[in-house]
Design a protein that fits this description.
With 185 residues, the protein is α+β, with helices and mostly antiparallel strands. The chain is built from six helices and nine strands; from the N terminus they run ββααββββαββααβα. The N terminus is likely disordered.
Length: 185
């Protein structure tokens, strides 16, 4: 079972680089400007789920954040669709690789799956984050000829934590370690 935050949720509006505005009831971790930046600009997340054999899987996926949930789209026959239909509990991480200044957003939630006709707009938004307009148009034309249907996987966060190692926003155990080391000197 996923632990629920006991913190107060607040309604906020966030302007992101793509000039989209997200309004949602966000937990404070997801509302952090650094978390919002990762959700808006990073092209890949790592999705962890339990495979049909009971062993964990971690795969890179393109994603779109709609202000309330992460959307991942794929072929309906993909192994992750079958696995998530049976065991919908997931974890995701979205991060940067900036050495000691790295940032990460960890999310846990429950996935829901809808099979939709055509190509969902969220798939195009996720896949074209780093493309210019011409590349995005060519990509869209190409994928619309390939996919008759797609699985739209929505993950609503039940727990989230934003870490900014360069700013000292650390996991609790590391904060305690660092604080203890600094106090013992």
């Amino acid at each position: 079972m996923i632990a629920q935050h006991t913190e107060v949720r607040t309604e906020r509006t966030f302007a992101v680089p793509a000039h989209r505005v997200y309004r949602a009831w966000l937990d404070p971790e997801l509302a952090h400007p650094g978390a919002q930046e990762l959700l808006a600009t990073q092209t890949l997340a790592r999705l962890a789920y339990t495979g049909p054999d009971g062993f964990p899987r971690v795969i890179p996926v393109g994603f779109h954040w709609d202000g309330e949930q992460l959307i991942v789209c794929t072929v309906p026959s993909s192994p992750k669709v079958r696995a998530l239909a049976a065991r919908p509990h997931v974890a995701l991480t979205i991060d940067t690789d900036e050495g000691p200044a790295s940032r990460a957003l960890s999310i846990r939630g429950v996935a829901s799956i809808d099979i939709v006709d055509g190509v969902p707009g969220e798939y195009l938004a996720a896949a074209t984050k780093a493309m210019d307009a011409g590349q995005a148009a060519r990509f869209e034309a190409s994928v619309r000829t390939v996919y008759r249907q797609m699985a739209r996987i929505a993950v609503r966060p039940g727990w989230a934590r934003y870490y900014d190692f360069g700013a000292g926003r650390l996991p609790g155990f590391l904060h305690e370690l660092v604080s203890g080391a600094a106090g013992g000197s």
